[in-house]
Amino acid sequence: MQYRFTFVILLVYLLSGCGGSTATKTSPLENMHSSSKKADKLNEALIMSAVTQQTPIEEGYLIGSEDVLEIEAYNVDELKKTVRVNSQGEIALPLVGVITVKGLTTSEVEQFIARKLDKYVQETAVSVFVKEYKSQRISVSGAVNKPNVFAVTGPRYILDMLMMAEGLTKEAGNICYVIRPTLKSSPAERSTTMVIDLDELLVGGNLSLNIPVFAGDAIHVPRGGLVFVDGSVKVPGAYTFRSRSTTLVQAISMAQGINADAALSDVRIFRDTGKGEREIIAADYDAIRKGEQPDVLLSENDIIIVPQSGVKNFFNGFVSTLKGFISFGPLYW
């Protein structure tokens, strides 16, 4: 038989007349950290990571107005200069003239100056170093406590900016995006996007992910996905899916546990197959709780239904709605 399944956050209690609501005595559930506790843990790790050694600034820095550059060229003494980039993004150098450097990397400026010197010297090596970084604007948005566009000076890193945004909210997912304007030398691309695993950076301590950020960068922390828990649980609803390690036991813990009338051996997980259908995964929650079966890893947008015991055709019998949120394709039994 085929059923169309339109799910909402709260399951209509079709069985509201059946049984009481007193809680059974259950053993403590593992991993009962709420989303807010997970955010607290990440924010604690953020504070600790921010004071540790960071990755070095890379060649990707884009020179901006008011930056101070130190320039040298082998065999060209006239070019040993310390210059400030003017408000138009230009510098003036002997033998080279006025050149626009704003929006270029130091290596691009080195190559440009070397080409200009070809007419004067047979061979030279040019070095350009940013001595002073002036004001840069970097935005931080999404699931942070203080989203804003920040004016900063000097080299900055992801952790610096997350600290300036006062840390992560409880809805934050486990990744962030760094969206960077394209270099002038790559006009075909408007921007590049880097994905940073926040759990790996903050909890795992992988500071190689603490990359430097530059003027014009946008850091976005998306909210985590959702899992839905409904049926015979204490607080049915939609809960933040924070990481790939979220399990069935954790999700039911977020819903504050099961009711006295729950059919623990007949829990169902409805999972999107990506083909307009939902796969149905049967789980014995009681056996998992007792350690007789492994816990089930969840995916984003999984729907967990805990049926009431002693009720026939529970799964075939209920239909509920979620206003404008999710509509699922056919389910096959």
What share of residues is helical?
A: 10-25%
Which secondary-structure class do the elements indicate?
Answer: alpha+beta
Low-pLDDT segments, ≥5 res: 1-34, 312-333
Calculate Rg over CA atoms.
28 Å
Question: Major β-sheet, in short?
Answer: 5 strands, mixed
Strand order of the largest sheet: 8-7-13-10-11
Shape: elongated
Total DSSP E strands: 19
CATH superfamily of the largest domain: Outer membrane lipoprotein wza domain like
End-to-end distance, in Å?
Answer: 6 Å
- Count of the domains: 3
The CATH architecture classification of the largest domain is Roll
CATH class division of the largest domain: Alpha Beta
Note the run of SSEs as H and E.
Answer: EHEEEEHEEEEHEEHEEEEHEEHEHE
Mean pLDDT: 76
Work out the helix count: 7
* Fraction in beta strands: 25-35%
CATH structural fold name of the largest domain? Outer membrane lipoprotein wza fold like
Short account of what is shown:
The chain has helices at residues 35-50, 106-116, 158-164, 198-203, 248-254, 285-289, 314-317, and strands spanning 2-4, 68-73, 81-84, 90-93, 97-100, 126-132, 136-142, 148-152, 156-157, 175-181, 191-197, 212-213, 218-221, 225-231, 237-241, 267-272, 278-283, 303-306, 330-332.
Structure description:
It is a single chain. 17% of the residues lie in helices and 28% in strands. By secondary structure, the chain is α+β, with helices and mostly antiparallel strands. The protein folds into three domains: 2-18 and 224-332, Roll (Outer membrane lipoprotein wza fold like), CATH 3.10.560; 40-53 and 134-221, Outer membrane lipoprotein wza fold like, CATH 3.10.560; 68-131, wza like domain (wza like fold). The strands form six sheets. It has a five-stranded mixed beta sheet. Strands 15-14-18-16-17 form a five-stranded mixed beta sheet, covered by helices on one side. A three-stranded antiparallel beta sheet has the order 3-2-6, with helices on one face. A hairpin with a 3-residue loop joins strand 4 and strand 5 (97-100). Helix 1 (35-50) packs across helix 3 (158-164). It starts with a strand and ends with a strand.
